[in-house]
């Protein structure tokens, strides 16, 4: 790929501008094209780079004259321009694929429907505390490309979405982590779960017997796929249910990790993050640390003091003995399942947004048990009303976060919890899940 000189970059967000920085450094002729309006900070970066760019549309003639195209993860393969590029035989790859050619650093790739951000940050926290030279990128912080252009780390911890994995060819993490698979983003995968599962498993497709695959052995979708599609790397499963000869499990309220006749033990009670899902995230993260021979004392200390992730079961405030919890990062059913499962008080649940093919039936037992009222926050809430109309005494529709929070304030009694856990994408009323979570926190603070 080094002989390629003309690269077109579709999308001028974090990954697009990062790729432009690295591509320019590697001697490419760079053209950046965004169908929407480019944010000012990214325009400034492109102008400082002195690369050609355009916004509010694509110059197809110029793009189709490229040797290589890097497509931002938000652009679907079905987009007309992407189809034309494929027809012409022009390689269309992701930032992750492009960047991996220009670093000798070892890569830990983390994917999954839920838990990948928490696990990525936890692994980074462990490795940094263990004294390793490590960067964190992917869906977090500065792009992988920008860091490879400007830094010189020995290791990278990458949070990888299925969209990023769709655009790989040779990308190969030394350690791959798959936290779980539940139906998500099915609108991008022809409403076909197998296509989505195949996309997640691309993280392992270039691995060899010298590499490692850490995964949730309790996840039926993952277990079924592994039986039918052998993985070449060394498997290190983790489980809440079964004892693992090699891998991680929980026994007598202790996390136990066995790797090559070495055992690490730590009580689950010392984890700051609550819930079964965080026990799994902890097992995945500490398995990576154990594999890299970080000192056991360092692992224990790093597991205990890790604070978690903003917008993921984040306790915001207690007002009149009512706890307000921000779980805006719950953009699918499984994430909301974990959130509701971890509620110990009667809950006023704020839910809704852009439905990605959700099956709400999975939440019925938890809603019956824990939820006293539902506040819908989205443009179209028909499916939510249909699913839960007979479960709770009160359901209401709102069109703004402030309205939703004020309604929750009126409904909630002392000892209740108000939980924002939307189970949906945010793009109908908000810029993204971070914007949604920040608006929730602001509205709570104004009560």
What would your notes on this structure say?
Helix 6 (116-129) crosses helix 12. This protein is an alpha/beta fold. The model has no long low-confidence stretch (mean pLDDT 92). The protein folds into three domains: 6-93, Rossmann fold (3-Layer(aba) Sandwich); 97-305, Mur-like, catalytic domain (UDP-N-acetylmuramoyl-L-alanine:D-glutamate ligase); 314-445, Alpha-Beta Complex (Protein-Tyrosine Phosphatase, Chain A), CATH 3.90.190. The chain has helices spanning 14-25, 40-49, 60-63, 80-87, 95-100, 116-129, 144-150, 162-166, 193-201, 220-228, 276-291, 296-305, 333-341, 364-370, 382-388, 401-411, 433-445; strands spanning 6-10, 29-33, 52-54, 68-71, 92-93, 106-111, 134-138, 155-159, 175-178, 212-216, 234-239, 247-251, 254-259, 262-267, 314-319, 322-326, 347-351, 371-377, 394-398, 417-420. The strands form three sheets. It has a nine-stranded mixed β-sheet, covered by helices on one side. This is UDP-N-acetylmuramoylalanine--D-glutamate ligase. It is an enzyme of class 6 (ligase). Its EC number is 6.3.2.9.
